[in-house]
User: Fold this.
Amino acid sequence: MANLQAVIEQTVTGLGYELVDFETSPRARLLRVFIDRLPVPVADEVLATETVSAVTVEDCATVSHQLTRVFTVENIDYDRLEVSSPGMDRPLKKPTDYQRFVGHELQMKLRIPEGTQRNFSGVILGVAEDTLRLKVGEDEREFALENIEKARLVPKFSK
Assistant:
């Protein structure tokens, strides 16, 4: 599995995308790969410090074609490959994900509860030394990244 992740990550990043996550389904012999565009620095300080455009169908097709070729060369056996964007409720996995989405709202579940609570939601304030700072209601809380089981962005819809 680690070798599979390394092959996928090297291929995806080589094409200029970010590997967000991947899933396998042994019974269905399915590989599902989630990609995102890398943030592009913006020179104008009035604008945001980085922008990210949405993953297109063409992006997914490009990654899919390249992964198919690489899997053939690497002799990786599967029946079906799906490549898609991570969606509006993008999972956050790495410390850089949390840093990239400072100011966004997230929902998360802890591995080990704090008191009796495992689920939290709030606005990301930052990450430092493997600790997530989160504004939960009116309070500022800190959580060890290693204790976060799952974290996803909360989609915002315009009216």
